[in-house]
């Protein structure tokens, strides 16, 4: 009986060790297809090789609307250096509101509408807006912000990721 207990304990410790190691690396960005306002689509796979900001937002979200000028400024600062932004409007956001917002504010980056909710589901069942992910050139999520990011910190992270291979 003691032998069984020690084996169980050893198996339990080995399992706990493997679970602890599972969280050590970056998670790959989920395979998603973003349907853009112009009707075209873009996949997460096509963004590999670029540092990408994926921002889940809604026109009815006051924090989202308030942070959008900073997201535009961030895009403008880094766009020529291998940086991309995809703003994903939530499923409940009326498409006409999203189009109007993007046009009146002249959003310079890709804007997608998550009509079915599948993109938000794939990215960890995003429910709260804004939720923003930073993805490195290898397609790995390196940071997740719920709420508005600290943009000074975000810019430092983007600069660091842009120089990585």
Automatic annotation (TrEMBL):
CDD domains noted in UniProt: TlpA_like_family (cd02966)
Highest taxon of the lineage: Bacteria
Signal peptide, first to last residue: 1-22
TM regions (residue ranges): none
Protein known as: Redoxin
PROSITE patterns, sorted: PROKAR_LIPOPROTEIN, THIOREDOXIN_2
Matches recorded under Pfam families: Redoxin
The keyword Signal is annotated on this UniProt entry: yes
GO molecular function: oxidoreductase activity
Keywords of this entry: Signal
Domain Thioredoxin residues, every copy: 23-163
């Amino acid at each position: 009986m003691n032998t069984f207990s020690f084996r169980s304990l050893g198996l339990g410790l080995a399992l706990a060790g493997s679970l602890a190691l599972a969280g050590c690396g970056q998670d790959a960005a989920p395979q998603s297809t973003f349907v853009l306002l112009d009707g075209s689509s873009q996949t997460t796979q096509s963004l590999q090789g670029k540092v990408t900001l994926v921002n889940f937002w809604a026109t009815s979200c006051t924090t989202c609307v308030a942070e959008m000028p900073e997201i535009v400024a961030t895009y403008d600062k880094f766009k020529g250096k291998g940086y991309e932004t995809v703003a994903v409007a939530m499923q409940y956001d009326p498409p006409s509101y999203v189009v109007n917002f993007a046009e009146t504010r002249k959003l310079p980056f890709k804007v997608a509408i998550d009509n079915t909710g599948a993109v938000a589901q794939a990215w960890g069942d995003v429910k709260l807006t804004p939720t923003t992910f930073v993805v490195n050139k290898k397609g790995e999520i390196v940071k997740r912000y719920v709420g508005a990011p600290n943009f000074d910190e975000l810019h430092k992270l983007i600069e660091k990721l842009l120089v990585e291979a």
